[in-house]
Amino acid sequence: SQRDTDYLNHWLDQGYAVVASDYQGLGVPGGHPYLATRPEAWSVLDAVRATQASTEYGLSKKVVLVGQSQGGGAAFATAVEAASYAPGIDIRGTVATGTPYFTTTTAPATRDPNAVEGVFAYTLYILQLVGQVDPTFKPDDIITDAAKPTFALTRTACLGPLEKAIIDNKISQAVAFKSDPTPTTAKYYGLMAYSNLTPKGP
């Protein structure tokens, strides 16, 4: 988006190199474990290590982590996991905005089941995560026929196209689900939680 371009150009103008991770599952047939903090963090740390190991760029070893929304969660998770997964990376600071926060006891959001709104995409993404980690989960047990094409987008589509499909196809919670998915998704909130709240660096 233009917003992202302007934002990243600001960092480039300050002399920073921008390294964007390729999250696990994106661009390949497998699904993406949306909001799972450890895969996000390891993806970012692997990208940093790979870039710094290259002799092509001559980059500084100093690192600042920056992210918004899912990226904010990834940035914070990266700062948390760095100490154990990549202790050699010199993280000088983290800027994490719009950062998701889950715990094993997070209460699910209460929304109008008949509302057709883009934010419903997050529920569908979390169900995709459940399918990644639980081989016994069968989407057909929860997802209606009307919502299956939209749900299928969670494997490959970014937020914008998924939100558009929800609005265009008038997919609400009442339309999408045969039964309440909360008991299924709540079991996996721990995967979206941070292993601790002590990031490396400020």
Key traits:
8 helices; 202 residues; 41% helix
Describe the structure.
This protein starts with a helix and ends in a 16-residue tail after the last helix. By secondary structure, the protein is mostly helical. The longest helix is centred in the N-terminal third of the chain and has 17 residues, at 37-53. The chain is built from 8 helices and 2 strands; from the N terminus they run H-H-E-H-E-H-H-H-H-H. 41% of the residues lie in helices and 7% in strands. Strands 1-2 form a two-stranded parallel sheet. The model has no long low-confidence stretch (mean pLDDT 91).
Which strands sit side by side, in order, in the main sheet? 1-2
Largest sheet: 2 strands, parallel
Topology pattern, helix = H, strand = E? HHEHEHHHHH
Contiguous runs where pLDDT drops below 50 for at least 5 residues: none
Any idea what the shape is? globular
Radius of gyration: 18 Å
**Count of helical regions:** 8
Q: Would you tell me the overall average pLDDT?
A: 91
Helix content: 40-55%
Q: Which structural category do the helix and sheet elements fall into? A: mainly alpha
Fraction of residues in β-strands: 5-15%
Distance between the termini: 29 Å
Question: How many β-strands, per DSSP?
Answer: 2
Short description:
This protein is mainly α and 202 residues long. It has helices at 2-13, 37-53, 70-85, 120-133, 148-152, 159-168, 173-176, 182-186; strands spanning 62-68, 90-97.
What layout of secondary structure does this protein have?
Layout: H1 2-13, H2 37-53, E1 62-68, H3 70-85, E2 90-97, H4 120-133, H5 148-152, H6 159-168, H7 173-176, H8 182-186
Parallel strand pairs: 1-2
